[in-house]
Amino acid sequence: MIANQLPRSLADNPRLDAWIGFETPGRVRISTGKVELGQGVLTALVQIAAEELDVEPTRLRLVSGEAGEGPNEGYTAGSYSVENSGGAIRIVCAEVRALFLDRTASLLACGTEELSIEDGAFRRSGKGTGFDYWRLAGDIDLSCASTGGASAKPATACRLVGTSLPRTDLPEKIGGGAFIHDMVMPGMLHARVLRQPWRGAILGELDERALHRAARRPIEVLREGSLVALLGEDEASVEAAAVLAREKARWTGGEIPPDAVVQPDWLTTQPAVDRVIANGKPAAGERVEATYSRGFIAHGSIGPSCALARWDGAALEVWTHSQGVYPLRQSLAAALGLDLASVSVRHRQAAGCYGHNGADDAAFDAAFLALKRPGHTVRAQWTRADELTASPFGAPMTVKLDAVLDPEGRPADWGIEIWSAPHGQRPGMHRAINLIGAEALPGAPPRVPPGDVPDANGFGAARNAIAFYDLPAQRIVTHFVAGHPVRTSSLRGLGAFANVFAIESFIDELAEATGQDPVAYRLSLSSDPRARGVIEAAAAMAGWSPDAAIGEGTAKGFGFSRYKNKAAYMAAVAEVALDEEVRVTRVWCAVDAGLVINPDGAANQVEGGVIQAASWTLKEAVRFENGRATCSQWDDYPILRFSEVPEVEVRFIDMASEPALGLGEVAQGPTAAAIGNAVARALGARIRDLPLSRARIMEALL
Amino acid sequence: MSDLATQMVRFTVNGQPVEADAAGDVPLLAVLRGEFGLTGSRFGCGLEQCGACTVLLDDEPAYACSRPAWTVAGRRVMTIEDAGRDPMLAALKQAFVEEQAGQCGYCLSGIVMRARALLARQPAPDRASIAAALDGNLCRCGAHNRIIRAVQRAAARLSDAGATA
Ligand code: FES
Ligand code: FES
Fold first, then answer.
1. pLDDT tens digits, residue range A58-95?
2. Of A165-179, A273-287, A614-628, B142-156, where does mean pLDDT reach its minimum?
3. Which domain range does residue B111 map to?
4. Up-side HSE of residue A611: CA atoms within 13 Å toward CB?
5. What does the pLDDT average to over B114-129?
6. Where are the alpha helices (DSSP H) in A314-426?
7. Which CATH architecture has domain A3-166?
């Protein structure tokens, strides 16, 4: 099932007891550094552990995201969780199971092949032995390092993995207090922090007395440099003062982005770090070219960021919904001048997270203020405007494709040139603290221009820049705009969203130019059997017809990619209907993710990815006016609503004998491409800049 | 500190008579969450633009985030926590779990409340009417289709129960 080399997570955290323990009778502790972001990862990890240990899933207690205690697995990002954490847990559980079986066999003086396990109890030739994991736990030393040598169950022997175990956290998330926002601590102080409207903005005079007057109950106003915080026991009072503070604040200086920062050609004229990733030899002949783009995209989490922190004079405790509790802990300690050992950071769940949003910054707010008010728990809550405008944005990109076609209409060479703002400015990346609260303090260190996301992590700007087709002489160049004034960072799929949109649009344009059917054209360029498998499956699901009319107002379009060129494969067909606006009516997806741990959970991820990507593709782009992002409320940043979502059908190719491949971000690129290609066919004209907004449709119709 | 006076209002929450300080236009959502610990209703925007805070006021959906608590004096407030008592909420909650309708779940309580109001006036809604009814509720995770199916499933179950009752 999962690849048999030692997963990175296990190499980094080799001790068995970092992952598993039998401390409570009848229960198994499984610790993971990965966190639940709404993607159902904890359920998949429960399945993997229960499978290898042969215990009922209800016995498992998952401890997730406790920096200082559980395993350090970096960020929960990049669709790595099942591969890395799942891979580690599987190997650890197989090894632990073998240790316990050996011990039982020696106590009973029998061979291990006579033993079996039923819900944690060891049986010999089908009969109870009186031994179980908990009874023998004291005999077995789990503080040793994993050898990685135990063999895990083959896929054919699995009874839990591969089934759709329902998520156990859902009932509480429908109607309980499952979220960090719901935590209440004795003596809690509510806090709001004023956000700088752009990087480096300097706050002018602020009438603090007016802020006190705006609050019904006593509040404190705390100012250091350009950081202003309002604190108090009564949340409504704190909020009232914050509203006034936002209104009255005057900002100067800093890196004011021009309104034109959203234009695709603004990006291409900026100073950039240039890099050649591949330099195939250009072919001779007439060159076809096209340039595509996407703008800034907001994460738009439904629950604004929130964090709690408490300082008792010696130790700082932080509760956060960050994707990376360990890196955040490092950055917090550095920013606050604390010893790493005195900081603990615990993950608590929040609304869906699709990348580097405001979670870490909110954690800094709470931690910074907790240090000022020892003995109190400070709860920092962001507003909707903070969440939409102060979270890092998904990075804008401009992507230019070119090719020379051979006499059969196949590319004789292929070039991709990418201009991109940074995709990774998480806390601690590129040795920078990367917490906006810290940037507002007096004497904040000058901003370090970030690097791109490392190639080993699947690239940032160049994610999926290598077209997953049999193309000769690929040329890949990136222009990385490191000094971009707007704070951008990781959003689901990183560069893959724009690159796949561009590549797959261009493939369609080439097919059209040479009079070929887009699906047949893709198949003619693809010898990878799994790529062909999803392409053919999606075409069949959608009833794809090569003779569909063009320019008739409704059409189907195709999109394909293999995420990061190493995770799951997906092909999508989108059906659109056009009037003044684009309506995506249906989407069919075929996905090859190898062994799928939880098919329904995986389908849920893909369906959600399709709808979110459709929203990005049709509607979303942040605008700037006078330096500020204008998307301070949902009305200014519409996302797809219930009456606008397509029906989505997902089919997984049966590949249970292949390793599990990450699929959490697989849908973003192919969905955008399929919609773009469908719109081009329905309209009889191509729109190359996202989103495919009403204004752009109208323009294309004229 | 303009006004430290209190302004007590009485209303019912999930059938229980309650009393709360509603001075200074404090929103109903803050009272439900802060005072009564009913954290099932959620803060999403405070602007009547996302629906995360939706509760029922005399059986009609209302945005608790922006509605001053004093305006509910003498009225009936129902929140997701009433699923233990209200058969329609219970059926919806169960159907949402059965359809695994949700990812992060943050949007769900508001959606369930609005669906309850829909089913009360339209017991067998089709896809389009469910979508139209839920248009004021945003879901960023993209669980929409499952949510629509869950509402249909709950509707079917409730009408079966009605038929056999
Ligand atoms: S929180 Fe009330 S509508 Fe968004
Ligand atoms: S399930 Fe996450 S916002 Fe709806």
1. 999 999 888 777 788 888 877 778 888 899 999 999 99
2. A165-179
3. 82-161
4. 28
5. 97
6. 325-336, 359-372, 384-390
7. 2-Layer Sandwich (3.30)
Q: What ipTM describes this predicted complex? A: 0.96
The domain boundary residue, chosen from B59, B80, B101: B80
Tell me how far apart the alpha carbons of residues B22 and B32 are, in angstroms, rounded to a whole number: 11
- Residue B143: its chain A contacts at CB < 8 A? 604, 607-608
* Tokens read off for A435: 């917490």
Fold of A180-253+299-389: Aldehyde Oxidoreductase; domain 4 (3.30.365)
Task: Report the C-alpha gap between A685 and A696 in whole angstroms.
Answer: 11
* H-helix segments, A128-206: 133-136, 170-175
Parallel, antiparallel, or unpaired for β B8-13 and B76-78? parallel
A667 to chain B: nearest residue by CA?
Answer: B142
Same domain, B112 and B129: yes
Q: How far apart are CA B151 and CA A520, in angstroms?
A: 40
For atom 3 of ligand 1, the residue with the nearest CA is B48
Residues 57-116 (B) with a CB less than 8 A from some CB of A:
80-81, 83, 93, 96-97, 100, 102-109, 112
* Cα–Cα distance, A425 to A452 (Å, whole number): 9
What angle is formed at CA B163 by the lines to CA B158 and CA B165, rounded to 5 degrees?
A: 90
Instruction: Answer for the pair A641, A582: CB distance below 8 angstroms, yes or no.
Output: no
A645 at B interface, C-beta within 8 A: yes
A17 secondary structure, DSSP code:
G
Which residues have CB under 6 Å of ligand 2?
A 38, 302, 351-352; B 102-107, 139-141, 143
Tokens of A402: 């070119």
| pLDDT at residue A2 in the model | 39
Q: In the prediction, which pLDDT does A702 show?
A: 77
Please state the pTM of the whole predicted model: 0.96
Q: Of B80, B111, B136, which residue sits at a domain end? A: B80
> What is the rounded CA–CA span in Å between residue A616 and residue A113?
55
Tell me yes or no: is domain A394-424+460-701 CATH 3.30.365.10. yes
- Cβ contact (<8 Å) for B103 and A39? yes
Is B24 touching A (CB cutoff 8 A)? yes
Q: Count of CB contacts below 8 A, A vs B?
A: 183
